[in-house]
Amino acid sequence: MKQKLLSLYVQIILDKRFITLRRSLTEFRRKLTFKKRVVSVFLQLDDPYSYLLSYYLEHVITRYKKVEFRFYLCQALSGDYTPQPGMLADYALADCAALANEFGVPFLDAGSTPAVEYRRALLDFLGEEHDEKDFSETFIKALSAYWRGDPEGVARIVGRAQAELSETNVLIGQNQLLLRKMGHYNCATMHYAGEWYWGVDRLHYLIERFDQQGLNRYKEPIPELASLQQAMQSKMPVTKPVKAASLPPLEMYYSFRSPYAYLALERTYEIADAFGLKLEVKPVLPMVMRGLKVPRPKLLYIVNDANREAERLEVPFGKIADSLGNGAERCIAAFYYAKSEGSEREFLLAVGQAVFAEAIDVATDEGMEIVAERSGLFWPDLKEALEKEEWRAWAQANREALTEAGLWGVPSFLIGDVAIWGQDRDWLLARKIEDMCHDGEGIIV
Questions:
Q1: Which CATH fold would you assign to the domain 242-436?
Q2: pLDDT 10s digits, 409-425
Q3: Is 431 exposed, middle or buried (0-12, 13-18, 19+ CB in 10 A)?
Q4: Whether pTM exceeds 0.85
């Protein structure tokens, strides 16, 4: 009963009518209390995602004068919110370097990291300046100098800062409490009228809300953001590149509980088909079942974010039956059997839609039988396969391979020496594969 009530609650908050009503009520309250439109921006100096976001926010602030942007010097919450901090830091640096290269944003030289002495000096200065009216501009400049590896720029910015790092740490702690109170856990985040947006990838959703409210003073798109969106368009080859035939299989690490993995599934198959690659889907147990906790605020952000991504991708989503526990294990066991029958693609798509769009409980035989029928699998044989345990060693081997690649979350993609995490990196995955077919055949359009 508890699970059904939770599923109903999620279905309600993700419903488009509910979202529209909530936004209307929020705007009504704002007008009634004569409050400004405010975007709260939480940035972390040594977070490269914060730098990339700030690079584009500079243009947004200039365009949307009717909106007040409040910048907070902060740090992402640790503990359960950041299960693999060392791996995350390494991956974030590599990921943002790749993004900066694609976007044409100045970034550190390849293989380098910011000097620690820059961090201390800039934190001291930002702690002193946080109450100034031009703090947002100052913070953007500080992030730019830090992530471009510009010692002269740092020297110009900090001058003779008087604040002590201990004072700055107190400020960061206060802003962390505010971040948590407002309902999030990460930096490079923006909060506007009850909704959260993480990173440069989600900036366009915030801009869409502004434009719907008629806040664009020039009534035209921001050129820099238009270029950003163009860069993140996933492009496919007209013909299969000849060299793709010599490439290794494309590996996708997948969790049956992850909405992001589900959203990425069909698009990943399309990429593999376009390049003539074999796609090997390698399931792992959900993070919670691998000893990595996912706190409630993180879960709520994920389902809300996945909901708007699903709408963008035109993927059915919103009626969810959480497969945590027995459901997730049965899915891997069933997939292990589906592979042996040559029906893995049909099974993956069927079970994904059942769990995330129809709230079908795959922990029950009734639910799994529906998936079997849609996948073209013989239910009695599949039911028998659910009792077998061979899949456990396979799932464990997949987890170890994922960790060895420096990743832990899903969906993750590996091909050759390329490792990419995230369903919103499909465009980058396609581009990396095209780079591997560098002879010019199968030109991307």
A1: Glutaredoxin (3.40.30)
A2: 999 999 999 999 999 99
A3: middle
A4: yes
